[in-house]
Design goal:
three-stranded antiparallel sheet, globular, alpha+beta, about 80 residues
Amino acid sequence: MPRNTDGRPTLADIRKWPATVSVPKGASALGCSANHLHERIRRGDSPVKTLQFGTRHVIIVADLLRVLSGETREAA
């Protein structure tokens, strides 16, 4: 799997991911720790949209791609 020189997946890699991924996998793409991203999710200020299933969260890959591509969220 091609990766950036720092071990993170490339945008091309991420485009091949399923619709949702685990928080640790999403955090690796963002270049932060899973603990940091879990904390941001808990506080409600995660940079990416998530879905919650009980106590488990998953990252929406389409939103992860938006963030990594530098796009901004549309006004709600």
